[in-house]
Records
---
Amino acid sequence: MMGGRTLVFLLLVCNYLLVAVAQTATEDLTTLRSLMDTWQNTPPNWVGSDPCNDWDGIKCTNSHVISISLASTGLAGQLSGDIGSLSELETLDLSNNKGLTGSLPQTIGNLKNLSTLMLVACSLNGPIPEEIGNLRELLFLSLNANKFVGQIPASIGNLSKLRWLDVSDNQLGGPIPVSSGSKLGLDMLYNAKHFHCGNNKLSGPIPPKLFSSKMSLIHVLFESNQLSGSIPSTLGLVQSLELVRLDSNGLSGPVPSNISNLVNVQQMYLSSNKLSGSLPNLAAMNFLSYMDISNNSFNLWDFPSWLSTMQSLTTLKMESTQLQGQISSSFFNLPNLQTVVLKRNELNGTLDIGSSYSSQLRLIDLQSNKIEDLDSNGGVPKVKIILKGNPICEENGMASENYCSNSQPSDILYKTPFNNCEPGACSVEQLPSPNCQCSYPFTGTLFFRAPSFSDLESNTHYTTLEESLVHFFQFHHLPVDSVSLSHPIKDSSQYLVLSLQVFPSSQDRFNRTGTSSIDFMLNNQIFTPPQGFGPFYFRADTYGHFGSVKISKSSNIGIIIGATVGGSILLVLLLLAGVYACFQKKRAERAIDHNNPFRRWSSESGVPQLKGAKQFSFEEIKKCTTNFSKANEIGTGGYGKVYKGTLPNGQLIAIKRALKESMQGAFEFKTEIELLSRVHHKNLASLVGFCFDKGEQMLVYEYVPNGSLKDTLSGRSGFKLDWIRRLKIALGTARGLAYLHEHANPPIIHRDVKSNNILLDERLNAKVADFGLSKSMVDTEKDHITTQVKGTMGYLDPEYYMSQQLTEKSDVYSFGVVLLELITARKPIERGKYIVKEIKSAVNKKKDLCGLYEFLDPTMDLGSTLIGLEQYVSLAMKCVEESGSDRPPMSNVVKEIENLLLLAGANPNAESASTSASYEDISKGSSRHPYSNDSLDAGAVLPNPKIEPM
């Protein structure tokens, strides 16, 4: 009897302990369930109440979540502020989930134990919160390849343990933060090894205070920013440096002489600045292998003799540096020399390669110098010499020489070969591995920021890298059979870009754990590439072939143990567990509901004035689109797809269904609904209703049959626009914006005016749409709103971007860009060129509109008289003035476009004819868009436009 009582007592104690252990993880479980509600494409085994044992990507200690690792798993949605509740979290890796949008929540600063934060190549935007400076345990911070704006938070200077800082490839601006008074800055990161801040919009001088002898930096990357001033001499104090990239900025003045103290530097990029003066003797930099100082204004009277002593040098680029004199033949004897580019200088005399030139030498490019002769001692096999634009190539009979051509080596077609085997036929989407096994590889791109070699044709580099990767993956017990590399190129940032395929072993595909582990080990720099490749990051492609998930069987063990104890005890435990689970479920639901901006719309007092807009259920939308059938799909874009639907009353509607990865925040979605339901104007898209149900975000509009202005200008809509039609579209858009600015109560700033947000009805009347980023002026008495920068690059007001002060004139600027897009049919930013800058330059250069000819859209019928074009361009230029105060209000813009229509003989208030009445379908062969493959025959001459003078 005593033994039975003891057994019951022990069982009750065990039950108490089990509940106690579960209780310690209650908040973590609630947080994970809340995250599940804001994310899409979470792993399918995220079910049950034991994330620590059953859920992919989750690791725990003492029932607390210490790691979330879900890189490259297709995750979509926003990073909820609830993440800050995971008090014991040490690692957060959500890299390469392109569908992860929205801003980085301020509550990230609550993760006091976080040591690794990796959010590489997502779609996050907004500013990096200052609260990130609260993560005092942080060692690794990688936020590169997102869309962050604003400044680098000075609070990062608090992270005294930080080793790796990477915020490159974003849109960050402002100065580099350094400490001042009690405020810390990046200069306090004495333990940091890496400052990766390239490809942003950082401005101002590089603070001398940023560098000191206390620092242990090995990589300083600030390339492709807008930095000005001189290179601080304090840079020469950081003798641990191995890589310096300050290229493509606006730096000026001389290179500090003590930069030669950086004896460990292997790659140095100072090109495309405004540097001047003499170049210091760098002979002491014994490890320097890659030096690019092109496009500066140095005073170099002779080819520096010390260059011939640099035994490690593989690449020398000194294009457009005012280099003079003759190159010593001993320079070409350097044993590792591969590439020499000295174009557009004043080099003269005879080019003497010598007989003992480097066996690795592949390219000598001396275009546009004053070379008079070539002494090659019988030829230089395997070396491409380019002397076009030199006197030697201008002599009679010499122009036909190979070295008088400027042809560059052809594209590198390297691809990992098969390992002595013949691949068989693979099924659809499968690929053969180098070991000839068919499978679904995990693919992506490796970006090497500063390789020390320039001979991309040498296969040795790639085979060495392949062997290193395979050995690394297998050493760490990852299920990898082999890897394949292909298509090596140098991109515009001089990064070496390589396509990577990783093939699974013992199966034909990876599971989520496999891809996430590979991604983590690459982007967390656990993998060290072979010497010469330099720092890198990995951008993964979406993987759509995940294997089946094995659900943990731990619950079965509990059942077996419970059965042996006895049915009655098991029943008690189950009842307790049921009560506890219900409690936790309701708690999680309350937490989720707290973050739902629509939660009060069900109560009478909280329902906004929707004026007829209806809240549809998912099932209703599904029914009226015939289950989102392909036949009803009428458009697609980065945001998602648009479907045509029919309501039970016969009304035609257009349903804009957001992709999981491009959903707005719930509050932005709610803002768009409330604004659209409140404004009513014939040039604004009318809202019929919305759907916020089952993880979906859908807006239900009136059906606008002719798509967006962007579709029309790109040729996808099937009809062309003449001059009068374009003026009327501009007028309709301007009237819609003028209504928002001056007649809506309170006034509204659209904040995302662009051709993709201008819809065209059956008569091509313009209707402004998409109010997800709009701001109301109801909460301020100022003439502006201070807010984080949002919008679309190319249309974004530069004054708003720099000041973060939003005004109606920000919409005016964006509208000005649309005006230019209307007459050119070009994207605002195309092939790296900005349409505003290009047209300003063309007009200023010619002092009239003749310079615009090459920009005008040929489908506009350039043979006709474009009455008022000059005034139109003048209006567009006023709208895109740098200062908002110099731009006209939209009401004035409306009047000017009305006058242009009157000048052209058209009634600005008359209804347009239907498209079917006056426009031919492209499919019938009547017209072609200028950028389609067969738009113009090679060498075709277009008529000059007839421009009516003012």
Note: The two ends are 111 Å apart (CA to CA).
---
Amino acid sequence: MKWAAQLFVFSIYAALIRALEDPYKVLGIHKSATVPEIRKAYKQLAKEWHPDKNDDPTAEDKFVEITQAYDLLTDPERRKLYDTLGRVEESRPRRDPQYRRFDPFDEIFAGTGYRFHFTDRDITLFHKLSITSRAFENIIVPKSFRTPHLLLFYSDWCFACLQVEPIWRRIMEELEPIGVGIATVHSEHEKALARKVGIHSLPCLVLLSDGRASVYKESLFSVQKVVEFVRNKMPYKMVATINDDNVDVFLSGWSDNKVRALVFQRTESIRLRYLLTAFYHRDRVAFGFVGPGKSTEGVRSRYQVSPDQDSLLVFNEITERPVASVTMADIPMHTMHDVINNNNFLLLPRLSSQALLDALCPPGGVPQTRKRLCVVLVCQDTPNHDPHRQTLRRFASESHYAKDRVRFVYVYQERQPDFINALTSGKDSPIEPLLHVAILCRRDMSHVKYEWLSGQENWESYNNTKQRLESAIDRVLHTTQSLLNEAVIGELIDEHTQGIVSRIFTKLLLTAEYLNENIGKEHILPIVSILVTVLVIVLAGYFMSYLIKLKNCKKKGSLGSNSGSSGLTGCYTPQLKLHDMRAETYNGLVRLLRPGCRTILLLVDTQSKPHLLPKFHKVVWPYRKNKTLMFATLNLDRGVVWYREVLAQSLAEPRELKINPRNCIGTVLSLNGLRKYFCMYHAKHPECGAGRGSKRIKNMSKQIGIDPAGAFMGFDDTTSESEVSDVEQGSLQTKGDKYGDVIFMENLLDGLPNWLDRLFEGTTHRYYVNYWPDFPAK
């Protein structure tokens, strides 16, 4: 059996070698084909013979042949070896760690989980590219706003990492030349960074773009899938699709202060290298993509673009012809960057941010012979000032000054008021700087020297304006004479920043995208479990509160209430109960009170009850949970006899009292049934301190020799007919002054909250009785 297995392996290996005797024939290309041509042929054949798309029984074998031929011809050394010696492999293994030797069984058994390796792979390459957390935060993250970075997280004892090592080399070869940053991270050494990014398994590929990390979710590593992954993470609609109908609108939209660039391509989908270029220059250049087809024939004919090659055209305000162009089969990245960097500003750009000011008018520190000037036109964002901007733009296009010496710009007065105000505070500055021109030179980041052109510009005469500008610029550039004024400028307002609504909408989109990427099937069950647990806890709490309420209903259902009913028969609700003192309830409210318990009693009559009861209820509401207190009302229409007897027992000397019930409404008694005393509140009671005649009340009480409990109520029966007893004043007044100190019904209980505080502090006066009189039955 052993020799049979060896014979089988040898026959397969020999068959593969024979199939690769002519890899050019397998791919259908000539021997002088370039690498792009080899790659193009491979992509076409791979799509045609892929086993998932082709039902032919020989499709799998054919696909293996195509892949092996492509691997051989894209390796320069192996291709040279085959062209010169006719061998597909070297006679001895190479020691170069970057060399990937052809392994016929590697691709055959890759899908089954068994891999045969004739060479040992290591992770030396990973160590060479490894970065630390500090480098990630200080270098990679800032760079990611212009250059996306692919990060591979690995560890030393990760066998799966060894398997992706050849694929990682291919990814580097494909993506690094077109503008994707490449780095690796040792997850064991940088555990905090791995947790921050969200690494759960190794190896793990992460794309860092705009400071945000996106994890590669595919289970299979391949160059094509990684390219699509990077493409899908580019900003939405970063490159506009251009055709014959919208090309003029796109090219003339430079009011956003950006140069326009058109990418002409032979294929339908824009290539990743152009997307990366647009991403790198998106702050200064707006990109448009022109694909093949009838809808773009007019654009191609207009600018005479070859349909067989890719082209890059850069435009400024002049849309009739590009300011720069390049046409090649594969435009190198450095060529595109050079073309754009040399033409990334309009002829007359606008100072719309601090970054533009630093780029167009960099700080000085240069010798006098290398002054760098900025010629600034102050205008407003209105079509009426377009002729003035056009005049200065024409002068800039015809100017013979080098761009690194003189820049022509304009600024909107209403959008950069602080900048304009700083330039108008000097000597000979115009009162109204609108449509005036200033020449400035920056000494450092905040200090500038400037000078305004004297007199109002005659913008209607181009020659006069040109002559005045040239003479002023030449005088400053070519003489030792310096600019007259100096000012301190602050940072310019960024006119391109998003509004609050746009930022909120962007945050919501990013949050939705993050949740979509990071919440998988393995996270759904824990989330559902947490939600169900919270729901069960809430329902359990609600059920327990219901049981407690039901228990209270059973316990308190037999008690009556005058003001605490909820409409449910026999059910107790945690509301304040106000009992009505009658013969039936008298013993429970007074005589049978437990030790330490008191009854707070409000005296009313039928007429005042609707007015006083709501306010009394509001005042005593905070004490509703005090189990030592009961609250009740006494209607004087039937209880005035009981009240008179209680007051009579509190007097020092027994006497007969005459009571006017109308003078007693609003009185509040605190009854202690066990110890036989009560405390009294009344709006004119001396101890309440609220009566305006309290001193007179006390003096009068001493003079007539009665206890204040009866004196302030006007219970003395010696009042003459010429005098009126004002019980709410507590003193005797003449008829002409009987309304001089009256308290209205709605104000009778104003001092009750303070009196209750003193009552519970024990500082109120106590009036003792010998016994509690009987309450009348009727």
Note: Residues 521-556 form the longest helix (36 residues).
---
Amino acid sequence: MTDSTSNASTSSSAPRAFSSSEMPSEPMVIATDTIDTESQTSKRRKLSDASIRTKLLFLATASVAVALLMAFSGMAINDIQFIRSSKVEQLDSQAKMLAFNCAGVLTFQDETGAKELLRSMAMYPAVEYACVYDEKGKVFAEYQAEGVAAKQYRQVDVNQYVLDDSGVAVRQSIMDAGERIGSVYLFANMSDLHAHVKRYLSLCAVLMIGSLASAGMFAYLMQRSISTPIKELADATNTVKQKRDFTIRVQPASLDELGQLGGAFNAMLDEIQASKAALQAANDELENRVELRTAELTDEINQRQSIQEALETARDEAEAANRAKSEFLANMSHEIRTPLNGILGFTELLTSNSDGNDEATRQEYLQTISSSGSHLLELINDILDLSKIEAGQLDVELSPCSPHDVINQVVSVLRAKAQKKGLKLQCAWSSRVPESIVTDGGRLRQLLMNLVGNAIKFTKEGCVTIDAELDHFSEMLTVRVVDTGIGIPLEKQADIFSPFVQADNSVTRRYGGTGLGLAISERLSSALGGDLRVESVAGQGSVFTLKVKTGSLKSVALLDAPPADALIGTVEEYSADEIDLPAARILLVEDGEINRKLVRIMLEEAGATVVTAENGWAAVNATSKASYDLILMDMQMPVMDGYTAAKKMREEGLTTPIVALTAHAMKGDEEKCLDAGCTAYLTKPIQQVVLLREVLKHLTMGAETQESADAGQSLSASNPVESLVDRAAEESDAEVLTTDVGLKSTLPLENPVYREIVEEFVDFLQQHVADMQSAYADQQYDTLAQLAHALKGAGGTAGFDVLTEPAAKLQQSTKELTPEEVEVNLAELSDLTRRIRQTPQRA
């Protein structure tokens, strides 16, 4: 057969074109039986990769196998069902015959005859077990086949049968004169059925193998007329694919569908060969365009990545700055609120004549207002200074001033603060003292106040030393502030001069302050022509070195250095006033005996009737038996805590106001109490004025209607002065009188009732601290944490607020398992315990 040709047409889907030098000059016809290539489609499934011959053989044999399998299966199922039903009928007939024969022996109770009848079942190998039951259902006689182990056979109702894979069980009634006098039970296994199935399967296997062999031989002879032309076409296709030679043609051997396929294959090759040149040109042009566009996209992607990285960096910086400023604002809010509360609170005391017209008390209130105002002014000045520094508008006024006078002023202001903590504040000159230097005296004083104040704040024991030195040649004044405080880790020292960033936020929380002092000081030192540096070792103390320009010293007199100076002062104390309460029944729930007694006395002296409970469980029982106008609930108690008790009371329908009393004052504690069902929240140590105000508010609200209560809440919210006074009394930390003799309770000890409470607390404190030391020695940290928590609230309640902070630190360090901090806090509590005294200082 000669090759057929057709007009070439352009095809966009043709493969890469070849140049004219790659193509033979004339079409070439090859014998397809000489092409020997292997299949390149290894990624397909095994059956799909098989040859047509294999697929045809598999199709023929698989079809025959499926047909035979279905036929044999159908016959097997039908045969097995027939045998099973026949087996049931046969065993049922045997049971009926046996029942008929056993009627007489059962009537005469002939057990030997019954066993003989049952033994006749031995002629049936499949019967494993047979028995005769009397009319009461008891076994009268039984038979067990030899070689079969005894087992529990399935029970069958009378005149019924059960058939399963293990065998067949039947039971027939034994009748005599129309009455049932017993029954016969037979059980036969399926061994005969299984033997029949094995024989049947063996026969089927032989027939199936022979049928498959015959079918495979016939399919092998018939498939050649189909597989040979297809193989020739596949070989030609693989040759074209491998050699890229589109002159190859096939020779169809018939006019059937395979012959038509061969002709179409030749025509397709003709079209592909004609379109190669056009396709090659299009490919070349497309490659040029792709290269150009790829270069453009690469430049654009690089630009976008740079912009994205810059945006992410700016976002991270903004988020970090926002977080830092949020923390700063929260800290600053607390710092401002504390002196403001003191000012408003003591102002209200003066306006309400709480001083009892006592001039000494009035002066004490005024001094407290003055000191709080000064503290508030310092905070505001810090904020303003930082704002000016951030805006680049900080101005300094250079004028002659005495550096010795500036240092003395700082020592005079801070000596009381140092004495209160039991610290020595020392000042010395390492060189001669210039009579004056040219600098901003106010800014220099502010610098030293920040540095010395920080040193006192972060020093628990030891001393704070101010060492001044003049370098006459470089015209530089150097002031070193040396302390024996907590120190600063090396990796944190770079952060302490950054605004809004603290070296350790926990230090700020423990010691107070805004954290702006050092940031402002560092910038002020630069404005004064010098710098500020720090050298510190954690746990050993710090040395802050301040240098400022002195201006020209040519005509300045140098004086001899004065001796070191250090003074100790005292701090006055104050007490809360009283409020009269309406007649009311109040339930006080508190596990601490001293706290319970003190709060009860406070309330009873104000006119209330108080019932006490030691834990939440007792409180729930008390509210179920009697009604109360108000409930004061400690939240940390054994047996059942306050949170659980409040929830249970609310679930039982109790609407009485519940005021939470807790030593926890962290963020989220108030929400936790309110979520548990409490109406209000007070922190320990308990301040009498705060407690009585809160009780009075809720007792008054409880006597009104719900609409009046809502109106009262709106009025309270609209009165910021009263709100601030209440918050001041709640958040203020009462100062404790520290003298050479010891520590005095802030309660009015001239009152015998309060004196008794304090005496009981002192006895309790001695044993309590001893228990804490024993718990620490035995490494019972959970017990130590519980003891510290109890002391944290009890100490302030008894008027010894000085115990609250060390007890809280001890509890925290115990939870964090930091032995060094635990030992320090225990030692501090032991020292405070030794210093506590009960004798009042003034009437």
Note: DSSP finds 22 helices and 23 strands in the chain.
---
Amino acid sequence: MAAYGALVSVMHIVDQVQTHPFPPISIHQKQAESLTEAVSSLQHFLEGYSPRGGYTDEEDFWESRIAEAAYDAEDVIESYIVDRIRARSEIDVEQHTSSADFYQGLQMVIANMNSIKIEIKEKMVLQDQNHSIKSARSAAAGSSRSTSTPQNATMIGFDDVLLRMLDKVAGGEPDLQILPIVGMGGIGKTTLARNIFSSPLVQEHFDVRAWTTISHEYNSREILRQVLDQVMEEKWEDLSEDDLGLHLYQSLIGRRYFVVMDDMWNIEAWDRVRRFFPDNRNGSRIVVTTRLSNLASLFNYANGLEMQFLDEDASWDLFSNTVFGKESCPLELEVIGKKIVRGCRGLPLSIAVIGGLLSKSNRTKENWEVIEKDLSSVVNLEGNESCLQVLYMSYNNLPVHLKPCFLYMGSYGEDEVIPISRLIPVLVAEGFLKPINGKGLEVVAEEYVEELVDRNLLIVEKRNYCGKLKSFKLHDLLRDLCLREAQKLKFLCVLGEQSIPQGINSQRRILSTLSDHPTPLLPSLESASLVRSFITTGECEKSLLHNFRLLRLSCFGDDEDIVDKLVNLRLLNLAKLPENPSLFSFLWNLQTLYLHCYDEDHHVFDIWKMPQLRHVIISHSGRRPGEYRLPDPLSDEEDMVLENLQTLHEVGSLKFSEEVLKRIPNVVKMKLYYFDTTGEEDDYLLNDLCSLHKLETLRIHCSYHGELVREVSFPRSLKKLTLRRTCLPWEDMTKIGLLPFLQALKLEKNAFGGSEWETFEGQFSNLKSLSIHACYLECWITDNAHFPRLEHLVLSYLSYLGEIPSSIGDIPTLQSIEVMQCTDSVVDSAERIKEEQQELGNENLRIILQ
């Protein structure tokens, strides 16, 4: 809920002011204590409070009152901070807020919060109505994670449907056929298509497969690019639509292909791309999923499928699997459980969501009866509103600290794949992550998102080598819920083609879906002086710079006024550094900097006086990386330890002197580039890297000349290591093999050189993923015991390697060997390993030859 997130944000601001080495303002100690006590009391109330009933269009009274009080506290404190900094930087001649005004304003805020506390005590103690519902929901929200994880892709109740579709996909006439799957949202169209796509029959029958999601606002160029990326297994970013289509057409000629076009909303999407899919008369197939029956009828409807609701038996099977996994439903819950299932009316999405809710709650008959009574009051509504009500129950039963995180997902586009690496800094900057002792805010954010995945509110798109979430999506029905609830709670204001939203001048977050902002809208938008996040993919008018004075998250481009005027920024995107680097000192609370290297100049970027920095991420945008460098910090009292700094990406020629090391003790991820051909390896002191005891991810990239990192020692904490053009001898691999937590190792472009690599027992004890690309290697001597946990092996562009050691196939955990552009003997040895494993009955090992 917005109120809880706002209270957490207030606590962050107070803490940041009190712990900052050079705070822009000071808060009277007694005021800070009174404010903290009031905020904590309201947080405690909200943690046990849940709005009564199902979804309504009306904002909850207590949430509204508390949110407004928290917003007032934010405005008073941050306005005073901005005034003081701007006055100090001579941006404003006169200071808007005096110290006395600030003190008085904060007192009023505290008095208002205390007044709300008294009202709550007087009124809520007497209101015991629906107590059982609140207790059940509180239990559901506060329970620990279930050991059974619902399987989104499981086709329960649709086995015969799957078999019929597989028969149509792999059989029938040789002509190219379009096979539509039609049904309402949440009925399982995409799940069925996924099972068809991943079935062994389809994998073996077709030469190539591709999947593309269309969505309501289709982009024909993006459709072609997605398909071509999978067909050619390359990235195609800069080609026009026609060029992409031509490449796709040429790549599909003569090949039997299978393509899924998921969630098509209009025939125009197909009409724009159909000419690029040749009819090879070899049984190629395209499956289209859509909610619209009239659209499906435009294809060869006889070959398609209309999804039906699950019957009671299949619904119960899906529900049981979601709630209990492989366990059986206790007899005392079976009767009430079947009532709940009947209330879902055979809609798989509703069953999965309600099942996910109950898997997190106490499994008692009383709790389930409460859910069943509330469920029956909402699912019996007609039309799509019934699904909204069911989805709202899942949202309403979230722990209160997860609700702001879930609501924020509505700011992303329909069917947008959300990389968690980009989301986490945003969640931290927004300020609604509640700190947990011993855990960084980034870890807290990742746990929040994972819990939303566990509750079937987010769809996993991709996980990494060790199972950590990399990207996810939000179902469109759940996104609709997010947007409705977020706008109702004034958590997020959405600007679209409709009229100007009421109360825009008091909004905290504004999402603009417009490519540009029409003249009538600008005055209203400029009046939103309290906005903290302005999210847009279109152009942003410079006039907003002067009015969004409290902005925390910037989406603006290469304008020095950003740094000059928006001194409250926590997350900043810049296309280039300002000519006056000292301006960064006014960004008192900057946490994340994305710097895109478009210009020709080399820059030195000084971060050593920015104590709140957490992430510095530089992208070279097609130019040579490593052009932004950090200066050596001066050993004087003005320099400080960057306790919060976790990420340094694409920094050039960083020297790990004693002064540098002591200022970045908690860095977790680093990408380093060394291109200085005039320097000596000792200049960079990479042998002292081992003192960074929290470093988990490290990439070192050298110039063609190499030999700049000959002496390098790695910290024991490393989990992922990538080396490129470091030209190390294979003998040095011994110290890498002894890293106890290393899970992923990538060796790229002459990372190592020499004819022979021999491993020894006791090395690579936790390594799961090994990739060797374009390294000089003739002979690899190893044993399966040397890689006891290896799961994935990738060998590419190895022009001299004789063969893959046969012992590799005996690694019990190995799942795949991928070979690309290697010698014939390597390919032959990979095929031989597969044959040997098949003879031993191991059908799980995949050999991928490209």
Note: The chain has 27 helices and 29 strands.
